[in-house]
Amino acid sequence: MAFDLDLIQRYYSSLADQLETVRAKLNRPMSLTEKILYTHLYNTGDLKEFQRGGDYVNFSPDRVAMQDATAQMALLQFMQAGKDKVAVPSTVHCDHLIQAKVGADDDLKTAISTNKEVFDFLSNVSNKYGIGFWKPGAGIIHQVILENYAFPGGMMIGTDSHTVNAGGLGMVAIGVGGADAVDVMAGMPWELKFPKLIGVKLTGKLNGWTSAKDVILKVAGVLTVKGGTGKILEYFGEGAENISCTGKGTICNMGAEIGATTSLFGYDEKMRAYLRGTERADVAEAADKVAAHLTGDPEVYAAPEKYFDEVIEINLDELEPHINGPFSPDKAWPISEFARAVEENGYPRDLEVGLIGSCTNSSYEDITRAASIAQQAVDKGLKVATEFTITPGSEQVRYTVDRDGLLDVFGKIGGVVLANACGPCIGQWARHNADKEKKNSIITSFNRNFAKRNDGNPNTHAFVASPEIVTAMTIAGDLTFNPLTDSLTNEKGEQVKLEEPRGIEMPAMGFSVEDNGYQAPAEDGSHIDINVAPDSRRLQLLDPFAPWEGEDLTGMKLLIKAEGKCTTDHISMAGPWLRYRGHLDNISNNLLIGAVNFFNKKTNAVTNQLTGETGEVPETARAYKAAGIGSIVVGDENYGEGSSREHAAMEPRHLGVRVVLVKSFARIHETNLKKQGMLGLTFADKDDYDKVREDDTISVLGLRKFSPENNLLVRLDHADGTTDEFEANHTYNETQIAWFRAGSALNLIRMQNQ
Ligand code: MIC
Ligand code: SF4
After folding, report:
1. 374 φ, ψ to 5°?
2. DSSP code of residue 405
């Protein structure tokens, strides 16, 4: 069996004692988040009341999960750590590298042959170091984790921002960069600033067209894309208890879109049913014995404002279905206001494609609800107006919904079933009606909708909604359609209305699957050799980054001053670039090509200060590097939001960027920069952003006295001979300063292992 029952049982059997020790110290009621964090301290001797949002704390997670596009870099780094085996249970999942083109079977075959070198590498490394390997086609990481590994009260890190999905099964599951995963796999502590806590109280009950997706679409509107930074959201209340386990997963999954460290729910009847339904009755039984410890204390939920830093209350009885977008997942519209928004903002009204599924919203319940709408279209003689795709989250879900005839229903309205993989969600989509320039609208049940993400077209307006709303919109083909109130004309010219969706939480006949795609690692992998061809275009062994030279960083050139949204998709684009995720030099050719240059409002066009000419960002960075000159990137708010991909930190490092100076950072990206030995700084006064000119030579001063307490100084030498000086804040603690000095966290591990 793939999961580790022993480990879970051992943890549960000592949980009561552990919590007693914590209680004796804190002497107050605790939320579930705190229970999990405090029982996963790396060094229990450090136990004390931690300052939320202040103290850095060392944790010891129970497991590590990696997906193919990030695992390559994580494992290339792990190979340098000098260990024989991973210290905690870990898995690799092949899901991101499969391109959607014609349909599941053919696309999977193509992916297996085009990515052979990478899949073989991941499979061999996994085999060698004791890592479970989920083959291409097995499913998308987060769905597979929910079905197989997540357990209430556990702690996990994963090299993907949507690792947080496992909060639906009561886990503290956090997205990290590969270097963080390496620490844990090497048996070292994993460090996180103790988060602040947001309590989300759900009252009432989901009904009608409203689903779990709408809870998080609403929360995203309330908190915005940076409102969750440094915070964990804990959901509770009678409304929470009525949401299915996979629905809870959906809510937690999209917590990544508000920058939240993670989100979670307490153990309840729905989780118990899901564990049983996914053949983990023994985990449910073990959890039942300690159920009171796997949820927040009643005092906390009775008076949340006393115990959480912030409380949000949502009445599910009144919650409307939402549609969020375009270009940002927090642009939230209740469906009753959406038609007006489409007209007022000039969003393209004709819908071109509807896409359901992905790592979220691909549960049995989601598929049955969407299929109930599709069936109505068939029954009521409605023609479907647009293209429609369905992405099952795992082979287990695909096999089961196929067995139960649901895929047939989608087929009848022209739906195409794609491989159990990320596909269009991450730009792995050979879109049929793709005109790269045309303004157009698509709607998905995915989670992210940043510009260019799905099909590379900056004019594609991507909206996010629940699978049932997406299906209804697909039938209508018109963004101003509101299925709750409007009717459609059928083939006979009659006016017909779609009725409320109906879903089934768990399959009546249970889940089944023929081959779940799991490959267990060798007991002893010492004989396995890992070979990387020196001339490979896809994989490249890593060279350590150079240590800090011991001096202030002076004479750096401004590489780009990025304006507005600069997500990890802007910094290191995915889609076609995913093929270079294991080759640092090749993937560096996409560095910041999506970022908007403040000075000319263009993308991938910056002034090369050595020649005065306009050049592409990667090429200009390489020119500075070749001339032995450091460079600096300046950015706006929430820089690096989105993905966990550490390439967004390694690429600038590789191309000679020394400093990233921004108004604010997204959490994972800030840590990734630190791990790779970069200086990630924020303007002490955000208005200083305006002082940075295109032809500046820039210095960062005070590094010899670099300490957690002191700010650093930035000096701008303008081309006209004038200068500006201002302070920059940083959040480096002593350990992180040591990474900076050593050139990277990995350099430090290697030095310590020698
Ligand atoms: C995403 O949804 O953006 C991704 C692709 O899953 C990323 C990981 C990656 O860039 O490989 C994420 O969310 O972390
Ligand atoms: Fe894959 Fe999309 Fe989920 Fe990321 S958000 S893991 S790309 S399905």
Report:
1. -60, -40
2. T
